[in-house]
């Protein structure tokens, strides 16, 4: 049984507070304040959930900050003697002619009910400068326009508060344009300065749920499909990164990156091509991120199964002679991974034909009976066979074990040929017994007798080889009483029949033991025929002093 580990967990990035792990039906927002006081001088302006651009007024196209090509110089985070929160803010760069590039544009990831910041002049000794702030919806509709006077400035400053509040209306801000103008309304071309930006951001990271494959399971060694959903119910989904590693600590290898969410109920997220990588255990990590830089990481631990199942056979051993029901014992498993079953089949040794299946099982087995093969129903011919044991898993991996066996369902031959039933034996001395004891796979034979006064069988002779119409043994009856007796010839072969016995044949013959000179019953001459004239003649012969007839 594989151990399970709770590898799935979530990691979240927060700017001003620890973010709660919850799924909200409506946007969950929290106020954020960006002061830039800890940012490096000259660094690019950045904050979660807002993009900073430069633009050409009054409503020109925004362009990335910084500007390529060296057209503008400096800008970004700068030291300012007087700000609303400290000694640093951001300002536009200067142009080659000494003028700044028009204005600052703020693009928010989420609709904003209220935005506040301070503005100022980025150059000393500026008179009568005003700042115009335009606010737009997500569709580009102008919903806010206001001018903010800055007044004369002997030094750089950033203390004029701008409060864009549309919370009492149905409109929301997604873009703000800030530009310095002269009192006449013409572009003042002074360097705009901005500090202490307050806005609302998303509280919750994206939500990722994987429905398949499960944790600690085996996956397809060629292509594995991950299903589930990954989306942001109250924010803007930006990126989904899939990676894998053999250790949780990494290093991580990129599988793919996606930019589109997949909302519930979900479906196929990715197809991971596992064919190029080695079999074994891997961690798969999916990182979902929203525009507010909040992220969720979800993990799966899977086994890329390119390992063949295990199939081993304990019984019968290679080359075993079998008959009747053949019992198979061994193991078939796949180390806990996607085992789909095993089967046992046979065909004649040396054949290129199809195998005939005799056992099919969908369950694994460990050092236990695997099934049986009845070689008598339907009857298969005696001879050499190869038995194939095959274990399979759900991904097409398999293992095969071939076991050569010999089928022998033919019983041995056991015949006593020179002794007749009820024959009297012993009057002429030791009895020579002839017959046949043969089998293609003979193990041995034994010749034995029992008498009316015996409690078991007494061995006359044994052998391990075939005997055909020849002497089996010599039976000395001299010490035995004259009475009925039975001879038994038993021949065994080496076949393991019905899992526990062997093929065996026995031949029985009942005889009478006679002793020389014994005339003590109605069959006076002991020839097995009575009454007859010879018995009477023998009687008077003995009475006259003669001997019994042989």
Question: Which helices and strands appear, and what pairs or packs with what?
Answer:
Blueprint: E1 29-34, E2 50-55, E3 62-64, E4 72-73, E5 76-79, E6 82-83, E7 88-91, E8 94-95, E9 103-112, E10 114-121, E11 130-136, E12 142-149, E13 157-158, E14 160-165, E15 173-181, E16 192-202, E17 207-212, E18 217-219, E19 223-231, E20 237-245, E21 253-258, E22 262-273, E23 280-290, E24 295-304, E25 310-315, E26 321-323, E27 325-333, E28 339-348, E29 356-361, E30 365-374, E31 383-393, E32 398-407, E33 413-416, E34 424-425, E35 431-438, E36 442-451, E37 458-463, E38 467-475, E39 484-493, E40 496-497, E41 504-513, H1 533-543
Parallel strand pairs: 6-13, 18-24, 26-32, 26-40, 34-41
Antiparallel strand pairs: 1-16, 2-3, 2-9, 4-8, 5-7, 7-16, 9-15, 10-14, 10-16, 11-12, 11-15, 17-19, 19-22, 20-21, 20-23, 23-24, 25-27, 27-30, 28-29, 28-31, 31-32, 33-35, 35-38, 36-37, 36-39, 39-41
């Amino acid at each position: 049984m594989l151990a399970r580990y709770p590898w799935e967990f979530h990691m979240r990035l927060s700017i001003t507070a620890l973010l709660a792990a919850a799924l909200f039906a409506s946007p969950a927002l929290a106020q954020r304040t960006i002061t830039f006081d800890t940012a490096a001088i000259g660094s690019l302006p950045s904050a979660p959930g807002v993009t900073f651009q430069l633009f050409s007024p009054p409503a020109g196209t925004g362009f990335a900050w910084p500007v390529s090509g060296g057209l503008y110089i400096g800008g970004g985070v700068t030291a300012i003697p007087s700000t609303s929160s400290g000694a640093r803010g951001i300002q536009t760069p200067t142009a080659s002619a000494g003028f700044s590039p028009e204005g600052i544009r703020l693009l928010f990831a989420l609709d904003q009910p209220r935005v506040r910041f301070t503005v100022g002049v980025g150059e000393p000794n500026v008179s009568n400068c005003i700042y115009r702030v335009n606010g737009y919806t997500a569709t580009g509709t102008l919903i806010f326009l206001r001018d903010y006077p800055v007044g004369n400035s002997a030094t750089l400053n950033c203390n004029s508060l701008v409060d864009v509040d549309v919370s009492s209306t149905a409109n929301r801000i997604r873009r703000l344009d800030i530009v310095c103008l002269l009192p006449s309304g013409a572009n003042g071309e002074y360097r705009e300065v901005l500090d202490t930006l307050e806005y609302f951001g998303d509280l919750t990271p994206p939500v990722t749920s994987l429905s398949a494959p499960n944790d600690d399971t085996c996956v397809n060694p060629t292509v594995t499909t991950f299903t589930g959903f990954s989306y942001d119910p109250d924010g803007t989904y930006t990126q989904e990164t899939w990676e894998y590693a053999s250790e949780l600590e990494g290093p991580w290898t990129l599988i793919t990156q996606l930019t589109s969410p997949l909302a519930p109920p979900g479906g196929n997220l990715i197809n991971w091509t596992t064919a190029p990588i080695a079999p074994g255990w891997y961690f798969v990590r999916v990182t979902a991120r929203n525009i507010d830089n909040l992220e969720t990481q979800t993990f799966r631990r899977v086994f890329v199964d390119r390992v063949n199942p295990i199939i081993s056979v304990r019984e019968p051993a290679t080359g075993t002679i079998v008959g009747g029901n053949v019992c198979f014992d061994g193991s078939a498993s796949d180390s806990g991974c996607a085992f789909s079953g095993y089967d046992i089949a046979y065909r004649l040794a040396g054949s290129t034909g199809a195998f005939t299946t005799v056992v099919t099982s969908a369950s694994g087995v460990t050092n236990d009976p695997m099934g049986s093969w009845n070689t008598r129903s339907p009857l298969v011919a005696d001879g050499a066979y190869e038995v194939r044991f095959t274990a399979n898993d759900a991904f097409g991996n398999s293992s095969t074990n071939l076991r050569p066996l010999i089928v022998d369902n033919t019983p041995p031959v056991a015949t006593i040929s020179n002794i007749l039933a009820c024959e009297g034996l012993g009057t002429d001395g030791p009895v020579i017994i002839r017959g046949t004891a043969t089998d293609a796979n003979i193990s041995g034979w034994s010749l034995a007798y029992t008498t009316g006064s015996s409690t078991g069988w007494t061995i006359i002779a044994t052998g391990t080889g075939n005997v055909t119409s020849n002497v089996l043994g010599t039976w000395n009856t001299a010490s035995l009483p004259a009475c009925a007796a039975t001879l038994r010839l038993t021949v065994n072969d080496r076949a393991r029949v019905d899992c526990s016995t062997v093929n065996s044949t026995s031949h029985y013959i009942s005889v009478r033991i006679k002793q020389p000179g014994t005339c003590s019953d109605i069959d006076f001459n002991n020839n097995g025929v009575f009454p007859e004239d010879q018995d009477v003649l023998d009687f008077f012969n003995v009475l006259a002093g003669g001997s019994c007839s042989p």
